[in-house]
């Protein structure tokens, strides 16, 4: 099931996405969910065309835990070694935007990069999750763009500003819940800028698996329903400029699209 979060007439709700097509092509409708999707819920039977609503970030995470250098070719393209243990960092909730929202080019950077990523959405409160239980704590998967101020990342060493600025974490367009860990571990993932392919890889190229990451993160902290893990980006990261449209597409999930604007 594809679960979207949206607003219509000033109201915010979750809905199950039905039909075929894309956000842009039409043909999709939302069956409004009674309640919240992390617990048992019912479909209301009230349906609205997706074209009539504004898509929001599909979840409102308490925290986004991101993993750096989880694809060997991406580490190499930036001149980095593959780390001995996963490199984890946070993106604040204020960085999260949805599909169709604008990425605001930060004033402190002159080198903004896209990073297409598979995002894991947590469905229940969990801590110290054993490997065999990881499947039980995952709600689903969505597309992410770990937008990075590359010059600031290199200059400041600590990544808080470079990867945590407002609008630096697009998520969406929805969460795909009917996907096993095995399926999510071998998906095509790509990024395009103005229709030109920049990144193309597979999630099977990840150094640390989805299970590895959930186990590693929950050794240290409690994850809550709606929290998000970004699993790293394949090679091919590159510049974004004001006016560009960047799209992250993941096989079996959908396409996350955002335009870059000047911060006003």
Explain the overall architecture.
Helix content is 13%, strand content 42%. It has 264 residues and is mainly β. The strands form three sheets. Strands 1, 2, 3, 4, 5, 6, 7, 8, 11, 12, 14 and 17 form a twelve-stranded mixed beta sheet that branches. The chain has a five-stranded mixed beta sheet with strand order 9-20-19-15-16, with no helix packed on it. A three-stranded antiparallel beta sheet has the order 13-10-18. Strand 2 (11-19) and strand 3 form a beta hairpin. This is 2-hydroxyhepta-2,4-diene-1,7-dioate isomerase. Residues 63-260 form the Fumarylacetoacetase-like C-terminal domain. Keywords: Isomerase, Metal-binding.
List keywords for this structure.
6 helices; globular
Question: How is this fold's topology laid out?
Answer:
Layout: E1 2-8, E2 11-19, E3 28-34, E4 42-49, E5 54-55, E6 64-68, H1 72-77, E7 87-91, E8 96-97, E9 102-105, E10 112-114, E11 116-122, H2 134-137, E12 138-145, E13 148-149, H3 150-156, H4 160-164, E14 169-176, H5 181-184, E15 188-193, E16 196-202, H6 210-218, E17 228-230, E18 238-240, E19 245-250, E20 254-262
Parallel strand pairs: 6-17, 8-14, 9-20
Antiparallel strand pairs: 1-2, 1-5, 1-14, 2-3, 3-4, 6-7, 10-13, 10-18, 11-12, 11-17, 12-14, 15-16, 15-19, 19-20
Pfam family, one: FAA_hydrolase
Keywords: Isomerase, Metal-binding
Domain Fumarylacetoacetase-like C-terminal: 63-260
């Amino acid at each position: 099931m594809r679960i979207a979060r949206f607003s219509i007439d000033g109201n915010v709700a979750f809905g199950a996405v039905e039909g075929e097509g894309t956000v842009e092509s039409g043909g999709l409708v939302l069956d409004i969910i009674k309640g919240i999707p992390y617990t048992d819920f019912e479909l209301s039977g009230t349906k609205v065309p997706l074209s009539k609503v504004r898509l929001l970030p599909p979840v409102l995470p308490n925290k986004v835990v991101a993993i750096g250098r989880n694809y060997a070719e991406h580490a190499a393209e930036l001149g980095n070694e593959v780390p001995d243990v996963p490199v984890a960092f946070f993106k604040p909730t204020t960085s999260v935007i949805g599909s169709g929202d604008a990425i605001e080019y930060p004033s402190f950077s002159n080198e903004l990069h896209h990073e297409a990523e598979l995002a894991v959405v947590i469905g229940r409160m969990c801590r110290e999750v054993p490997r065999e239980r990881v499947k039980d704590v995952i709600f689903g998967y969505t597309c992410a763009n770990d937008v990075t101020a590359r010059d600031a990342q290199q200059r400041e060493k600590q990544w808080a500003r470079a990867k945590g600025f407002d609008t630096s974490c697009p998520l969406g367009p929805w969460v795909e819940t009917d996907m096993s860990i095995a399926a999510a571990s071998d998906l095509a993932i790509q990024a395009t800028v103005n229709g030109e392919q920049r990144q193309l890889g597979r999630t099977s190229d990840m150094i640390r698996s989805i299970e590895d990451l959930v186990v590693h993160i929950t050794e240290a902290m409690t994850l809550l329903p709606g929290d998000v893990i970004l699993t790293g980006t394949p090679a091919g990261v590159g510049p974004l400029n004001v006016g560009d449209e960047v799209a992250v597409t993941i096989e079996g999930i959908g396409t996350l699209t955002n335009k870059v604007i000047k911060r006003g």
